[in-house]
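REQUEST ID: PR-0412
SUBMITTED BY: lab tech R.K.
PRIORITY: routine
TASK: structure prediction, single protein chain
INPUT:
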Amino acid sequence: MNHHDHNPLKILKETILPGESKTINMEIAKLHTMTKLKIPIIVERSKFQGPTVLFSAGLHGDEINGTEIVRQLIVKKINKPKTGTIICIPIINVFGFVNQTREFPDGRDLNRVFPGSKKGSLASRFAYYMLTEIIPHVDYAIDFHAGGAARFNAAQIRIAPNNPELRDLASVFNAPFTLYSNNITGSFRNSCDKLGVKMLLFEGGKSIDINEDITQQGFEGAKRVLDHLGMLNNSRKSIPAVADSIYIEKSTWIRAKYSGMFHGYTTIGSHVEKGQLLATISDPYGKIEHKMKAPNSGYIINVNEAPIVYQGDAIYHISTELEKQTTAD
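STATUS: complete
OUTPUT:
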């Protein structure tokens, strides 16, 4: 493939030469208090030719665990490549990070406004600059997310179906689970895909939370990908995954049939049998207790950790269909 290398790299009018390190501050808009908001883009280039990889997180401002993964890649100097270029953006939505909210200040979900426009809403302008200034340089990307609200995701990679190149890359990352999920219109992943960037979307943990296990899974997976691309610097070793990823073709949400106090009995990532007791929902007064049972056998890849639920709330995400393992694999 044609790597965008060895030409000087230009982002927001700043030039980064091979062998250089530079932090570029993206300033799109100030806060309403006139406080400047800088979005640091941390660029590390090797002297040697190779691909360009982007590690990004915080597209949703309350999904802190992803930011922690990218921070660790920087702190442990994994982002200093043996070949090629590594770009780290630990927080894309700094506005949301400041307030610990998912959305942009204009109320929009940044992950639904791509490709954006230069003169649109604030989120839309931001999406536009991401796609015009950064993505054209990128060959591979890993975007780190966490579950919304109190819903805790098992560490998983999401890729679009029928894309052998992404399937290979996902198997290198080797998260506990790999989920086939279609690109959503307006999402960062969808726009990257259209521009020819191979993106893995990592999901793990929940919002407003940092979980050590999830951080480790994301960190080690990222290292395996860099190792595979010949970019992991020599002082670092990548650790093989404990077990091969479980590939999920189809999955479904189990929703609460009643409102009440929620007591879950099912651990994240576990395999359950059809009819197995997953949780109970009870009233606060000790009169009623509803049992929730598994509708089918499968893996539990997301658990709602909220103490109180309403009827219709998503409680568990369960696999309904696994990928047919081919013998050639």
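NOTES: Residues 252-322 form a domain with the OB fold (Dihydrolipoamide Acetyltransferase, E2P) fold (CATH 2.40.50.100).
REVIEWED BY: pending
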